[in-house]
Design goal:
The chain is an alpha/beta fold. The N and C termini lie far apart (50 Å). It has three domains: 168 residues, Aspartate Aminotransferase, domain 1 (Alpha-Beta Complex), CATH 3.90.1150.10; 40 residues, Orthogonal Bundle (Helix Hairpins), CATH 1.10.287.1970; 236 residues, Type I PLP-dependent aspartate aminotransferase-like (Major domain) (Aspartate Aminotransferase, domain 2, 3-Layer(aba) Sandwich). Helix 3 crosses helix 5, helix 14 packs parallel to helix 17 and helix 16 packs across helix 17. The protein is globular, with a radius of gyration of 23 Å. Helices cover 44% and strands 12% of the residues. A seven-stranded mixed β-sheet has the order 2-8-7-6-5-3-4, sandwiched between helices. The protein has a three-stranded antiparallel β-sheet with strand order 10-14-13, with helices on one face. The model has no long low-confidence stretch (mean pLDDT 94). The protein binds pyridoxal-5'-phosphate. Pyridoxal-5'-phosphate (PLP) binds next to helix 7. InterPro entries: ALAT1/2-like, Aminotransferase_I/II_large, PyrdxlP-dep_Trfase, PyrdxlP-dep_Trfase_major, PyrdxlP-dep_Trfase_small. It comes from Erythranthe guttata (Yellow monkey flower). Its cofactor is pyridoxal 5'-phosphate.
């Protein structure tokens, strides 16, 4: 082959350093097996791949919310708005909402670039939605609409990280967007460990210890990432704990990066979602006390519109000069996609009691969330019934993160195969059952402990089959490797 002008040794080393496990090695193998099954259905001891590796609800047959899709369709094809057939096919309030939204879009053109922060009218709607959620005022100029939460996280990392000496406190285990983004922007991930024995609790003493340790190494810690509800760990923070975290950030002068994309995914009656903004404001802290960024997305919740790429960040406690710089960063990408912007406004302002679509909207939402809660419980019970496996409660989000105590012989076999023990387990699970999970090593974990992350997203009628296959595999695996 002719020599290429760039080689793996000459590309940006930060790209090489960056890893993204949820689409990593196991998933690549799964895709290969899927192809083999297509060509020869008898090539493996199962007939389909069950993707439990990623929080992508609609890829596992979750249906979108009808009202949201009606409004989106009408916004994208306004020519049918006034037609009599449309009034038969679409609900009256979706027609009304689409007309209102189009009136807010300059030229009623969903195919045009918008303001770099997002269409002003949609930001007004989102601001009102956050106000209704939290009970505190929101300035629409604090909102930046983005293509999902991921670009917003990248933007903040780009803003905060100047060099390897800048550190970002991140939970371990963490969602790998954070480690990847910090690596890409050349910063240092400062880990703080969630306490598995305390239901993945977050201790301020641990934050303080890790902060001091980073400082002693010359790291300037700039921000704290909190994922609530947690991914991959599924815990929902208690309000008291959130207050301690807010005080810690205020005291230490850290930007609080609050990943709140799972705010609608809470499954237990004793926990409730509270945004960090609500918590900080209820403590009497305003813009001058704490710099806070809240990330939200249309990808999760009961809506699960991952492919539509919508989301926003609300930034508070930043000076006008800094906001100008963030605006400049947003402008480099021109704007986020308009369907995602519209969806973000719908998610933050869904039908209300008395609206024509309310009953069907509520029934769809409730069916999805209550089913997710049942699936979480079933899988949690199944994991806890396996030898050597312990699994914390899935209070929220879309995942379980069970710990697996692997027999020594399995650890040795993994070493021999030059792979992490949990990746060894995940690979064997895939090869035997077609179930795809992500090894815990992709999220970080306490040294010497091993986990897998499994989504609760397969449809309810598949959960029993997954549990049966998983249980059979695990029993055979332990029989093979038990000392
Ligand atoms: C905790 C968390 N934050 C952010 C994201 C990014 O999602 P998106 O870019 O689709 O909004 C995800 C996706 O799984 C996530 O789990």
């Amino acid at each position: 082959m002719a020599s290429t002008p760039i080689t793996i040794d000459t590309i940006n080393p930060k790209v090489l350093e960056c890893e993204y496990a949820v689409r990593g090695e196991i998933v690549i193998l799964a895709q290969k097996i899927q192809e083999e099954l297509k060509n020869n259905p008898n090539s493996h001891p199962f007939d389909e791949i069950l993707y439990c590796n990623i929080g992508n609800p609609q890829s596992l047959s979750q249906q979108p919310i009808t009202f949201f899709r009606e409004v989106l369709a009408l916004c994208d094809h306004p020519a049918i708005l006034g037609k009599s057939e449309t009034r038969v096919l679409f609900s009256g309030d979706s027609i009304k909402r689409a007309s209102q939204i189009l009136d807010q879009i300059p030229g009623r053109a969903t195919g045009a670039y918008s303001h770099s922060q997002g269409i002003k009218g949609l930001r007004d709607t989102i601001a009102a939605g956050i106000e209704a959620r939290d009970g505190f005022p929101v300035d629409p100029n604090d909102l930046f609409l983005t293509d999902g939460a991921s670009p917003a996280v990248h933007m903040m990392m780009q803003l905060l990280i100047r060099s390897k000496k800048d550190g970002i406190l991140c939970p371990i285990p963490q969602y790998p967007l954070y480690s990847a983004s910090i690596a890409l922007h050349g910063g240092t991930l400062v880990p703080y460990y969630l306490d598995e024995a305390a239901g993945w609790g977050m201790e301020v003493s641990e934050l303080q210890k890790q902060l001091e340790s980073a400082k002693s190494k010359g790291i300037i810690v700039r921000a704290l990432v909190v994922i609530n509800p947690g991914n991959p760990t599924g815990q929902v923070l208690a309000e008291k704990n959130q207050k301690e975290i807010v005080d810690f950030c205020k005291r230490e002068g850290l930007v609080l990066l609050a990943d709140e994309v799972y705010q609608e995914n809470v499954y237990v009656p004793d926990k409730q979602f509270h945004s960090f903004k609500e918590v900080a404001r209820s403590m009497g802290y305003g813009d001058k006390d704490i710099a806070l960024v809240s990330f939200q997305s249309v990808s999760k919740g009961y809506y699960g519109e991952c492919g539509k790429r919508g989301g926003y960040m609300e930034i508070t406690g930043f000076s006008p000069e800094i906001r100008e710089q963030i605006y400049k960063l947003a402008s480099v990408n021109l704007c986020s996609n308009i369907s995602g912007q519209i969806l973000a406004s719908l998610v933050m302002n869904p039908p209300k009691v008395g609206d024509e679509s309310y009953d069907s909207y509520f029934a769809e939402k409730n069916a999805i969330l209550s089913s997710l809660a049942r699936r979480a419980q079933k899988l949690e019970d199944a994991f806890n019934g396996l030898e050597g496996v312990s699994c914390n409660r899935a209070e929220g989000a879309m995942y379980l993160f069970p710990r697996i105590v692997l027999p020594n012989k399995a650890l040795e076999a993994a070493k021999e195969a030059k792979t992490a023990p949990d990746a060894f387990y995940a690979r064997r699970l895939l090869n035997a059952t077609g179930i795809v999970v992500v090894p815990g090593s992709g999220f970080g974990q306490v040294d010497g402990t091993w986990h897998i992350r499994c989504t609760i997203l397969p449809q309810e009628d598949r959960i029993s089959a997954i549990i049966t296959r998983l249980t059979k595999f695990h029993t055979e695996f332990m029989d093979e490797f038990r000392g």
